[in-house]
Hints:
The structure is a homodimer.
Chain A: H1 4-18, H2 23-27, H3 32-41, H4 46-52, H5 56-64, H6 68-78, H7 80-88, H8 92-101, H9 104-113, H10 116-126, H11 133-136, E1 143-145, H12 150-160, E2 169-174, E3 178-184, H13 185-190, H14 197-200, H15 214-223, E4 228-232, E5 238-243, H16 244-262, H17 277-303, H18 306-311, H19 314-342, H20 351-380, H21 384-414, H22 424-447
Helix pairs in contact in A: 1-3, 3-5, 4-6, 5-7, 7-9, 8-10, 15-16, 17-22, 19-21, 19-22, 20-21, 21-22
Amino acid sequence: MMRLSQLMLPDIEQAFSADPTSVGELFEDLHAEDVADIVERAPAELAPNLLASLEPGRAADVLECIEPHRQVDLVQRLGVSRAVKIIDEMASDDRADFVAELPHDFAEALLAAMDPVEEADVRSLVRWPEDTVGSVMSTDSLTVPVEMSVGEVIERVRTVGQEAETVYYVYVVAGSDKLVGVVSLRDLILCNPREAVASIMAEDVKSIGPEADQEEAATLIQHYDLIALPVVDDAYRLLGLVTIDDVVDVIEEEATEDMHLMAAVQPLDDSYFGTGFWTFVTKRAPWLIALFVGGQFTANAMTWYDDVTRHTAALILFLPLVISSGGNSGSQSAAIIIRALAVGEVDLSHAAKVLFREIAVGLVLGILLAIIGLIRVFLGADDLNLALTLGVTLIAVVTLGTVLGAMLPILLERLGLDPAVSSTPFIASLVDLLGIVTYFSLARLLLM
Amino acid sequence: MMRLSQLMLPDIEQAFSADPTSVGELFEDLHAEDVADIVERAPAELAPNLLASLEPGRAADVLECIEPHRQVDLVQRLGVSRAVKIIDEMASDDRADFVAELPHDFAEALLAAMDPVEEADVRSLVRWPEDTVGSVMSTDSLTVPVEMSVGEVIERVRTVGQEAETVYYVYVVAGSDKLVGVVSLRDLILCNPREAVASIMAEDVKSIGPEADQEEAATLIQHYDLIALPVVDDAYRLLGLVTIDDVVDVIEEEATEDMHLMAAVQPLDDSYFGTGFWTFVTKRAPWLIALFVGGQFTANAMTWYDDVTRHTAALILFLPLVISSGGNSGSQSAAIIIRALAVGEVDLSHAAKVLFREIAVGLVLGILLAIIGLIRVFLGADDLNLALTLGVTLIAVVTLGTVLGAMLPILLERLGLDPAVSSTPFIASLVDLLGIVTYFSLARLLLM
C-alpha cells in the first residue's frame, strides 16, 4: 500500500510551523486512517499538536485508528484537558478499550474530567473481562419505542444517528426497555412512513449475553449474516451491540492465538514490535522448557535399548528420520483438526468418525513412506531385517502420529480446554517417545 | 447452538405429507439460515420439495446458506426448470460461485434457461480465477448519476434497493459510468433531500481492481473500516463490490490456508467431511514424502560421525532431545513471523530488525535450555566434556532454529511466495540436519 504519510509529512511539518491552524485544511479530504498514519509517523512533539488541531469528533476518529500503545503515549502528551474533549467523541467500545490501556492515575484523572454520563458508560464497559462479548460491545445503539411509526423512526435516525455505532439496524423496545424487534434502515427506507414500526420489524431477534465468549458472537453474526448483534441482559434489556467489524477483529485475533498456541507460544497480546523482548522470552520459554524436560524421556527410553543399538549400529542412522516422520504426520492432522474445530466443521459428536478416518489416512501415508524407506535401505545396506524393521516402524509411527494429532485436540475440546493447546511440538514430542519405543522394540524382536 | 432443525423436522415432514403448500407458513418466521439447516437435515427426497415450496426470493436466501456440495446435489434434484427460478434470485456473487461448482452440462443447461442479462452476469463473474477480487465480488451495486439530488437518490434506493447487495453505500457515477464518489445511506438520511448528492458525497473513494488478490481487498476494508469496497476497471468504471461479510470469509479462509501450509498440508478446498479420503491423502502425502526424502540427509550426516558415536555412545541418548529443541524453537519463530506477516505487523523492511531480535531471543532461550541440560547430564553421567558439548550444542541449535524459523518466511515473502509454505516441519527438518552436524562436530572437537 502506498504510504501517504511519507509524502505528506514534510509539507505538514512546514505548514504547522508557519500556521498551526492551517493543518486542519490539509487533512480535510483524507480518510481518518490516513491522517492517523501521518500522526503516527510525526515527530513526538508534533503528533499531539496535530491531533489537537483537528475538530474533536475528527480527532476521535483519527485516534481510534492508531495502535494501542501509541494511543496511550499520544494522549498522555495531550494532557487531560485537551484529551477529554477528544475522548468524549470516541465510539464507546474503542473508548473503553482505550481507557483500560491507560496508566491508572491518568485514567482516573480523565474519567473525573469527563461528562458523568460518559464516565458511567466507560465504567460499565471496562468491567467486562477480556474475550467476553461485554469487552467488545459498543453501547451506542439506536433504540426506538415500539409505538412509533416508520416516519417517526426515520426522524429519530436523523436526529440521533450521528452518535450511533450503526444506524443500519434500529432496535425496537417495549415497556422497560425490553428488546422486542429489529428493523433495518433498508426496510425503513423501503416502507411507507405512515406504517407502524411494529408491523415491519423482525421479531425473531438473535441476541447474546455480555458474559458470553466473543467467539460465540462472531459465530452468530457470521451464521446469520448480520451487521450487528444486540447484547442483552437476563431481562432482555439492550445493553449494547457487537458489530461486524468487531467480528473481523475477533476472527483475526482468535486465528493468531490458535497459530501461536499450535506452535507452543503463549499468545502475544500485542503486535510483534509492540511486544517487549522479555515478554517474548516469557511467552516462549515456559513451553520450550516443558517440551525439553518432557523430551528427557526420549533419552531415558534410549538407554533401555542399549543392547539393540549395540547389536545393529545402523539403526541409529534412521532414528531422526523415523521420529520426524511421526512428528510431521502428527502436525498435519493436528492442524487440520484444530482448524476444523475452530470453524465448526468438526465437533465432539464426530470423534469416532474422525478416528476411523485418520487411522485409514495414517495407514496409507505410513505405507507410502515405508515403501520409500525400504528402497532407501536396500540401496544402502542390503539388510532385509533392518529394512523390515524400518518399514513396519514407519507404518506404526505415521499411523500413531496421525491418530494422536487428530484425537488430542478433540480430547482437549471434550475437557473444555482450547484444542490449539495440543500444540504440534507437544504432539511431536509424544510421538518422538512412542517412535523410539516402537522402533527399538521392533528391532529387538526382528534383529536379535 | 440449539438446533432448531432437530425440533422442527418431524412437524415439517408431517405437514408436508398432509399439504405441501402449508410448509411455507411454518417457515415464515424463521431466519433463512435456520430454514437452510432444516432443509440440509431433511431426507434426500423431501429436501428439494421443501425448497421448491418457498417463494423464489426466499428459496434463494435459503440456498445461499447451504454448504456448497449440498447445494449442488439439491439443485440437481430440483431440475433445471424449478432451479432456474431460484437461481435468478440469488445474490450475484453467491450465484457465480454456485454455478462454478456445478457439473459442466447442468451448469450450461441452467445458464441457457436463465434470463440473458442474468446469464451474462454469471459468465462475467465465473471467469475470474480463484482468490482474486473478481471471484468474490458481487455485481449488485447501487449506482446513481452525479446530477441527482439527495431526495432522488433516496427514491432510487426505495425502488431498486431490494436487488442490491448493500444499500448502505450508494455509488455516484459520472459520464460513461466513471466512479466519482460514494455516499452512505446514513448521510442520505441525515441530509436535506433538496441538496445535490455531489455536494455531500465523499470523493476520495477507496477502490480495487478485479485481478487483485482477495486478501488485499480484505486489508483495505479492515484498514478503512468500510462495509463495502467498489471494484473498478482501468477506466475507473464500477464492476462490482466486495462487502465486509466476504471479508470475514476471506480472513477465515486465509487463516485456514496458512495453518494448513504451516503444518505441511496442501490447503483443503472443502470442509473436513466435505473432503474425500483420497483427496486428503494427496493433500498430505507429497509434503510428507518430500520431508521424508529430505530427512534422509540426516541419516547420511550421521554416517559421517561414526567415529564420534563409537567413541562416546552416550551422545546418541541426547540426540532426539537436541534436534527436537531446535525444531520447537524454530516452529515458535515461524508461527510468530508468518502470522505477523499475514496481518501486516511485519514487512520486508523489518528483516534486519527481526534478525537481530530473533538472534537475541534464540540465545536467551538456548542458554535456558543449556542450563537445564547441564543439570540433567551432571545428575546422570558426571561427564564434564559431554555436558559442555550438550550445552554449547543446545545454545547453537536453539539460536539457529529461532533465526531460521523467523527468517525463512521473510525470505519466501521476498521471493514473492507464500511465507506459510516455509511450513514448520520443513524448518524442523532443516534444523534436524544442522543440529546433527553441530552436535557431532562439537563432540569431535571436545570429546576426542
